[in-house]
Amino acid sequence: MTEVASVLIGRDDVRRRVRELGRAIAEDYEGREPVLITVLKGGAVFLADLVREIDLPLETHFLAISRYGEAEESLGRVQILLDLDVDIAGRDVLLVEDIVDTGLTARYLLSVLASREPASLEVCALLDKSARRIAPLAPRYVGFDCPDRFVVGYGLDFRERYRNLPDILQVDDLDRLTADPDALAPLLARAGAV
Ligand code: IMP
Ligand code: MG
């Protein structure tokens, strides 16, 4: 029987790549004070590690959104549940995303942010699932290309579980995980022990 999930990107590779991204951002934004905005909850883990690799003055802010279900006709319909408490007009804004999948969420958020007239607006995505893109979107910074598989860990959830896995796992048997959402719980125990 196949495993429910397997490691796609191990924690050491994540750490190395986040460091590289942080250095690239620090170089590109030198002399400026960027505003990093992330979308709760998935992006929080990535943002927390990323900002510690950027040796510039910066601000971190959060947005919370809800999506209108998974149905095709509701794709890309997003509601802002928690808005920014900062005026981003004239600021250098970097939208930090855990994963860009269809791109519809990011496209919606970019249109909202752009309407507030920042000096610049870019996207940094840890994972880019470009095979599933519906809305054309090429993030300025990408951590890893992601295969067309459901992934969990390092902030990414399945039904709110597994955000705390240090590795990024690809789900190989989504039917089994759907039938038993706790199927990967044993990996959480091992995660701390490695
Ligand atoms: P998009 O609008 O399709 O690009 O959706 C992006 C959002 O969907 C991400 O911010 C995640 O919250 C969620 N998402 C997309 N793919 C995955 C995945 O493979 N695992 C976990 N969450 C995902
Ligand atoms: Mg989610």
Could you say which overall geometry the principal axes of the C-alpha atoms support?
globular
Which blocks of ≥5 consecutive residues have pLDDT under 50? none
Helix content: 25-40%
Strand percentage lies at 25-35%
Bound molecules: inosinic acid, magnesium ion
How many β-strands, per DSSP? 9
Largest sheet: 6 strands, mixed
**Order of strands in the sheet with the most strands?**
4-3-2-5-6-7
Structural class by secondary-structure content? alpha/beta
Q: Total helix count?
A: 5
Task: Give the mean pLDDT.
Answer: 93
Radius of gyration: 17 Å
Order of helices and strands: EHEHEEEHEEEEHH
Taking the alpha carbons of the first and last residues, their distance comes to 25 Å
Write the layout of secondary structure elements.
Layout lengths: L4 E5 L1 H18 L6 E6 L2 H9 L7 E9 L10 E5 L9 E9 L3 H11 L5 E9 L12 E5 L5 E2 L15 E4 L2 H6 L5 H9 L1
Parallel strand pairs: 2-3, 2-5, 5-6, 6-7
Antiparallel strand pairs: 1-9, 3-4, 8-9
The structure holds inosinic acid and magnesium ion.
Magnesium ion binds next to loops.
